[in-house]
């Protein structure tokens, strides 16, 4: 991600659902560009080309097996504000960060691990991971850009998503202290992607009609395949 240039020909708000968007798969970091047809290419192929060993791929598979996948109702469920900042919450955030890293994602939201609470984690590049509870967008820029996003809950799907470039988010850290985060570019994109999860919104909801159709087809095929294998 981040290598696809801003597309000024695609005015913000023209996408099917309008509004903002967001991201947990770091997959596009490994590729320069992919057209719509490639949106269904295997994540593993890409990671293999990026030099991951069989052991690393196996560890990723184990992590992904713990991430709720498309079709799971928890991904569309309402989430509760977090009111108890205790050891259990800290452990939950730590587990989410571990899963995110093992799956080569750059963000993860609580519904993706089956918890309907307003908690997300992210880590962009080598920065330290951040856990954010009860996030709220306080400001988002008029300036938006379109970039490819993937999602750990939508294996193999990559779609173009338009989002504001700059956001200011307020929320609480894992101990309940108020925090404010000003983010731009990929950081802002990830935060918005994960916040979407807290509202039951997925990237396919933010994609163009054509890309959504293609993505849904791929997801249904993958679902049918895993159904037969079970
Ligand atoms: Zn996601």
In short:
The protein has 230 residues and is an alpha+beta fold. The chain is built from six helices and seven strands.
Note the topology.
Layout: H1 43-49, H2 54-64, H3 87-102, E1 107-109, E2 119-122, E3 130-140, E4 144-149, E5 159-164, E6 166-172, E7 178-184, H4 185-198, H5 203-206, H6 209-229
Antiparallel strand pairs: 1-2, 2-3, 3-6, 4-5, 6-7
Structure description:
Helices cover 32% and strands 19% of the residues. It contains six helices and seven strands; from the N terminus they run H-H-H-E-E-E-E-E-E-E-H-H-H. The protein has helices at residues 43-49, 54-64, 87-102, 185-198, 203-206, 209-229, and strands at 107-109, 119-122, 130-140, 144-149, 159-164, 166-172, 178-184. The longest helix has 21 residues, at 209-229. The protein is globular. The structure holds zinc ion (ZN). Residues 24, 151-153, 193, 197 line the site of zinc ion. Zinc ion binds at residues 24, 151-153, 193, 197.
CATH 2nd-level architecture:
Alpha-Beta Complex
The percent range for helix content is 25-40%
Order of helices and strands: HHHEEEEEEEHHH
Major β-sheet, in short? Answer: 5 strands, antiparallel
Bound molecules: zinc ion
Q: Strand content of the residues, in percent?
A: 15-25%
Show unreliable segments: 1-23, 26-41
SS-based structural class?
A: alpha+beta
Number of domains: 1
Strand arrangement, largest sheet? 1-2-3-6-7
Termini gap = 33 Å
CATH fold-level name: Peptide Deformylase
Would you report the number of β strands? 7
Q: What keyword list fits this structure?
A:
single chain; alpha+beta; Peptide Deformylase; 5-stranded antiparallel sheet; two-stranded antiparallel ribbon; disordered N terminus; binds zinc ion
């Amino acid at each position: 991600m981040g290598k696809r240039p801003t597309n000024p020909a695609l005015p913000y708000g023209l996408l099917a659902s309008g509004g903002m968007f967001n991201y947990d798969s770091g997959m596009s970091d490994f590729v320069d560009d992919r057209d719509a047809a490639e949106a269904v290419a295997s994540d593993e192929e890409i990671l293999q080309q990026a030099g991951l060993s069989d052991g690393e791929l196996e560890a990723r598979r184990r992590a992904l097996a713990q991430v709720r996948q498309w079709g799971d109702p928890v991904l569309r469920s309402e989430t509760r504000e977090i009111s108890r900042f205790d050891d259990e919450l800290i452990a939950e955030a730590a587990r989410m960060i571990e899963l995110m890293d093992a799956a080569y994602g750059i963000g993860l939201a609580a519904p993706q691990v089956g918890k309907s609470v307003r908690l997300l984690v992210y880590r962009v590049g080598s920065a330290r991971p951040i856990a954010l509870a009860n996030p709220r967008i306080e400001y988002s820029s008029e300036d938006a850009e379109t970039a490819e996003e993937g999602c750990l809950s939508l294996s193999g799907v990559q779609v173009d998503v338009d989002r504001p470039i700059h956001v200011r988010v307020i929320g609480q850290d894992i101990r309940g202290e108020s925090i404010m985060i000003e983010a731009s570019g990929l950081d802002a994109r990830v935060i918005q992607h994960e916040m979407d999860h807290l509202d039951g919104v997925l990237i396919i909801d933010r994609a163009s009609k054509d890309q959504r159709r293609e993505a849904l087809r791929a997801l249904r095929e993958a679902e049918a395949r895993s159904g037969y294998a079970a």
